[in-house]
Amino acid sequence: MDKYHGASPLRGPPSEGPPVALWLPKLMYVVATMANSGWGRYQTLYFNNKGISPSTIGLMRGLGLGTKSISYPFWGLVADWSGSLQIALIGSILASTFALELFRLDWTYSSLWHLLFVQIVRSASNSIWPLVDAFAMAVVANSNSNEGYGQQRLWCAISWGLSALLLGYVIDQTSFNALFYFTYSMVIIEVLLVLCLIPRKTILAKSDNNNNNNKESISLTDTTNIKLFFTKKFITLSSILLFYGIVMSIPESVLFIHLDSHLHMSKTEIGLSLGCSVLLEIPLFYTSQNLLATYGTSSLLYLSQGTTFLRLFLYQFISEELKWTVYLIQVLHGICFAGFWVGVVHLGQRIGPKGLNTTSHALVSAIYATLAQAIGGVLMGWILEEFGFKLVLWTGMLLMGLVLFLTKSLMEMDEVMSDLGDLQIINPTQQV
Q1: Is a pLDDT exceeding 50 seen at residue 9?
Q2: SS3 17
Q3: Strands (E), 50-188
Q4: Closest CA to 193 of 312, 27, 382
Q5: Which CATH number is associated with domain 18-208+226-406?
Q6: Which of 180, 186, 311, 419 has the fewest CB atoms inside 10 Å of its own CB, making it the most exposed?
Q7: pLDDT value at 432 more than 80
Q8: What's the per-residue H, E or C state across 325-391?
Q9: Is the separation of the CB atoms in 352 and 233 below 8 Å?
Q10: Lowest mean pLDDT among 95-99, 258-262, 290-294, 334-338
Q11: Which positions fall inside the Major facilitator superfamily associated domain (predicted)?
Q12: How crowded is residue 283: how many other Cβ atoms within 10 Å of its Cβ?
C-alpha cells in the first residue's frame, strides 16, 4: 500500500496516474501568485493613474469583490460536484485573463457602466485561490509527511513578496504595460502546469471510505449538509471573517492610495513595502502546525487580531518625513494575516459540512477575501475621500473591538473549544 492509502480526494481509478506529490501545490502557489499578484496589488494604483477617484475605485473594488463572494462558492461547488479541479482551474484562468485585457481598451473607460461591467466579468471568472487552497489541503491530508497546510501556503507569501517588489521596480522604469505582459507570461506557464501536472479527475469531495464499501456523492439537493452552513458556529465564524476582512481592506487597498497620493511614494517604494509584509508571514506559515499544537487556535487568532489593532494605531503616525516607518509597520502583516488565516482555515474545516469541503473553504475565502473586502473597499474609500486617512484608521480600530468580542464568543462554544489546540489539517473526505 502506498503512502496515499485510505480515503483519497486526489485520485481516481488506479489507471489515472500516480498520487500527487507535495511539491506540486507549492509550485501551483508560486506560479498562480505570480500570475495574479501584479493586478491584485497594483490595480488600485493603475486606476488612480487613470484619474479615477478613490470613491469610484472603492466602488469598483467593492463590486468586483462582491461578485467573487458568489463566484468563489460557485466554483468550489463545481469542483466538489464534478470532481474535475483541472477543468475549473483552466476555465477560471483563461476567462479572467481575457477580462484583464479589456482593462487596456479605451472602450472600457468611455463609460462608468463599461468599467463596472468589465470588473464584474473579471471577478466572476477569477476564482483560482479557493481551488488551489483546497488542492493543497487535500494533498497534505493524504500524505504521511509532517508538512501542514501552512508549509504549502508560505510559498504564496514568498512569491507574492518577490513579484510585488519586482513589478513595482519594473513599472517605475517602464510603464503599467509591463504589468500586463508579466501577467500573461505567467498565465501561459500556469495553464501548462495545470494541463500537464494536475490530474484531470481530481476528486475533491467524494470518499471511497477505506473501512467499508459505502460511497458518498455530492447532491445539490442534500439540504442536510447545506443546512450546516447556517449553524450558530458557522454564522459566528462568518461574522468574524466579514468584519476582520473589512478592517484588512485598509492595508490591502486604501493604504496604497494614501502612500501614492499623499506621501508621494514611488511604485518601487510601495513594492518594497509589500515585500516587507511577507517577512513574518513566511515563518508563521512554516511553523503553523507547531504553533497550533502548542498554543491553540484561540491564541493564534487573538495574537493576529491584537497585532492588527496595533498596526492600525501606528499607521496614523506615518508622514512624508517619516514614510520609511511604513516598512517597519508592514512587517506586522505576517502576524495579522498568517496567524488569522491558519486559525480560520482550521475552524472552517472543523465545523463545515461533511462532503462539501471545497465549498466550505470557498465560502470562508469568499466572505473574507471578497465580500468583506468589497464592503471595506467602498466604505473605507468613501471615508478616505470625505474625511481623511485618520478616520479610516479609527473606524478600523473600532471594528477590531467587535471582532475580538465575536472571537471570544466563538471560542466559548463547547463544540468548537474541544481539542482545538491539537487540531491538524483533516482529510477533506472525513466526518468532522
Answers
A1: no
A2: coil
A3: none
A4: 27
A5: 1.20.1250.20
A6: 419
A7: no
A8: HHHHHHCCHHHHHHHHHHHHHHHHHHHCCCCCHHHHHHHHHHHHHHHHHHHHHHHHHHHHHHHCHHH
A9: no
A10: 258-262
A11: 38-389
A12: 14
b or e along 67-92 (b: 16 or more beta carbons within 10 Å of the residue's beta carbon)? Answer: bbbebbbbbbbbbbbbbbbbbbbbeb
Residues 254-268 as b or e (16 or more Cβ within 10 Å = b):
bbbbbbbeebebebb
Other residues' Cβ atoms within 10 Å of the Cβ of residue 313: 15
Q: Which three cell numbers stand for residue 139?
A: 494533498
Of 383, 430, 360, 421, nearest in space to 142 by CA: 430
224/247 Cα distance (integer angstroms): 33
Q: What grid cell was written down for 346?
A: 482550521
Residues in the chain: 432
Is the pTM higher than 0.90?
no
Nearest residue to 237 via CA among 141, 346, 148, 337: 346
pLDDT digits (tens, 9 = 90+) for 358-415: 666 777 877 887 788 778 877 887 888 888 888 999 999 999 999 999 998 888 874 5
Residue with cell 476582520: 244
